[in-house]
Description:
By secondary structure, the protein is of the alpha/beta class. The protein has twelve helices and eight strands. It has helices at residues 6-11, 17-29, 42-52, 71-84, 98-106, 129-154, 186-193, 210-218, 240-252, 303-309, 319-322, 327-346, and strands spanning 33-36, 58-61, 87-94, 118-121, 224-228, 257-261, 275-278, 314-317. Helix 9 (240-252) links the parallel strand 5 (224-228) and strand 6. Helix 2 runs antiparallel to helix 8 (210-218) and helix 6 (129-154) crosses helix 7. The protein is globular, with a radius of gyration of 20 Å. The relative contact order is 0.15. Residues 147-220 have low confidence and may be disordered. 6-AZA uridine 5'-monophosphate is lined by residues 36, 38, 62, 91, 231-233, 261, 279-280, 298, 316-320. Residues 32-334 form the Orotidine 5'-phosphate decarboxylase domain. One of its GO terms (cellular component) is cytosol.
Amino acid sequence: VWTMSFKDRAALPNTPPLAAYLLYLMTIKQSNLCLSADVTSTAELLALATEVGDSICLLKTHADIIDDFGDRTVRALREIARQKNFLVFEDRKFGDIGSTVQKQYTAGPLAIAKWAEITNAHLFPGPAIVPALKSAAASAIAAYNTTVHTEISVGPPASPSPPSPSPPSSSPPAGPVGRKQSTVSISTTISTRTEPISPQPTPGLAGEPADVLARLGATPYLRALLLLAEMSSEGHMLTPEYREACVKTAREHRDFVIGFVAQRALNAEPADNFITFTPGVSLPPPGQEGVRGDGLGQQYETPRDAVLGRGCDVVIVGRGILRAEDRAKEAERYRREAWRAYEERVGAAA
Ligand code: UP6
């Protein structure tokens, strides 16, 4: 799939719905740029998402570094994601036994499964971490459905809603009929009901091929996992054997593991269509060459090295954009560079 277009990869019969959605979104926005929003307050996060949202396909968070992270953060971020059409990736780097990661994923002040379509995990605890997170994602979605139903039954009589321009397949799956309403408080309901549980195609995405939408509608949940197969940091201990173990485990869970955090494409078998997300990317400031690290182990390469040289799909950029005076403009510069490298790779360059 190295030289296949994102659009063609989205349409392959075994592409999981969320991967198809992302690949198609990248095609429409002409963006294979993920912003790493490593900021420490809700206000900064929202300002950044608003400024840069048009240029990215994905926004990566570290929710645990946000001092005032809470419901308000989630609601506002989801609203910006809906308006600007990007997905959210919580860079949690899970690494514990299955039972613990299930709780870390769905509960506590972060409750990642509620608001981030994508998260990631290390494989060092062993392969059971993947099915553990997969089943936790499914339970979180089922709980969401219960909450929605309860909210409907306790609320004031709903006025008939106008027909939606989106096809029915884009709505969250309906909850089971006849659930008891008495055990869930209204405030709980209100705090969760505005968190979209699946990406909502908006009128701007109305041109999506019917098969992508059909597969989106058929899925019980739209949550996905990336495995950390390689790191960008100097001296990381993820050996080639470890990397191969990540690929093997990913192949056993193709419906949930949609790709890797890695420094190169790892697709080797004909059925492999994993998406490669690559951190450690920066562009030298215009007119200068060669800032290659941050003094704390981070190593950088350019979007072109990553996408054209190593077959990476999505470049993850943090400080390269965050430190710019005009972040929207700098994000556009990265988007253009990364997209041009992709077009060259697939032979679509003008
Ligand atoms: N990240 C890496 N390298 C990895 C995995 N993840 O840098 O191998 C994450 C960091 C940070 C971002 O946690 O959020 O990607 C990189 O930020 P930067 O562009 O500012 O260096």
